[in-house]
Write a structure and sequence with these properties.
This protein is of the alpha/beta class. 40% of the residues lie in helices and 17% in strands.
């Protein structure tokens, strides 16, 4: 394994892609877009941004119309000053589909993005073809995990520096993949966390890590059991936010879902083992095996 993280730009040089801003219900929403074929929406996690999928854009866009976007309050999208609960994120997702003229799409979300994707699939089943939930994490709402996410994320914003941002990112990775937290990735997130209004926006993002809000929007059989889209749940061996038995619990709630466990990855398998992540998407979304990777 190389000790150096691969730079992002060479991975995209042969891929036609665009960055643009779309008005979604008055919220300027940044999207990265590439490829033709069935639409595939990619949703990042808490405090994240569309760059979370830059190691996947080239491969996935060979078979899909890929759209990765900054959720409200995140990245370079607008940051209106109100709490960002799952219904707010789901409204943005539905509005983005409308703005792009898409009736339906495959939805793949990591961490918070998976939570949003699942909520959207319950609320709007007619708009979701297939659903992929990657390291959706902390299914049982462990207070210590919520506290860690709140404290480490806020510190990375209120004391924004390469060091605090790196600590927050490295927490997401497995021990053997932390070398993939490159200076480039740190610089991107530091630029976002240094934007005007970033601190208040992050407070609005982190309301979902508060027990009283979690009681309303938390993972539960009562709503996940209504999901009808074919669903793949991707768990990992080193996810700091949730153990495999939580993945098994979620799989038991979502009818007909498939659970897979990936070894040697933490909370960001799309970045840590991108070839495996991409292959699983091809196989599940197209029902066409793509061959095994070396990850």
């Amino acid at each position: 394994m190389s000790d150096a993280a691969p730079p992002i730009w060479p991975q995209l040089m042969a891929t036609a892609f665009t960055q643009r801003f779309v008005d979604v219900g008055g919220v300027s929403t940044r999207i990265l877009e590439a490829g033709d074929g069935p639409p595939l929406i990619l949703l990042h996690g808490t405090g994240g941004h569309a760059e979370a999928y830059l190691r996947n854009l080239a491969a996935l866009s060979r078979r899909f119309h890929v759209i990765a976007y900054d959720m409200v309050g995140h990245g370079f999208s607008d940051k209106p000053d109100h709490p960002y609960t799952l219904d707010v994120y789901a409204d943005q997702l539905g509005g983005l589909l409308d703005a792009l003229g898409l009736e339906r799409a495959h939805i793949s979300g990591e961490s918070l993005g998976g939570w949003v994707a699942a909520w959207f699939a319950d609320e709007h089943p007619e708009r979701v073809d297939r659903l992929i939930l990657t390291t959706p994490g902390n299914i049982v709402g462990k207070p210590e995990t919520m506290r860690t996410i709140r404290e480490s994320t806020m510190r990375a914003v209120t004391e924004a520096s390469p060091e605090t941002v790196r600590v927050r990112l490295e927490w997401l990775f497995a021990p053997e993949t932390r070398h993939l937290v490159s200076e480039e990735l740190v610089d991107v997130r530091l630029a976002i966390y240094s934007l005007p209004g970033a601190e208040q926006a992050m407070r609005n993002v982190l309301v979902l890590q508060e027990p009283d809000v979690r009681a309303v929007f938390g993972w539960a059989e009562s709503w996940t059991s209504r999901i009808r889209a074919p669903t793949l749940i991707i768990w990992t061996s080193d996810d700091p936010t949730g153990t495999y038995d939580e993945g098994e619990l979620l799989a038991s709630w979502i009818p007909g879902s498939t659970l897979v466990l990936l070894e040697g990855a933490g909370h960001w398998p799309q970045w840590e083992i991108p070839e495996t992540f991409d292959r699983l998407h091809f196989e599940f979304l197209l029902d066409q095996p793509q061959g095994r990777s070396s990850d």
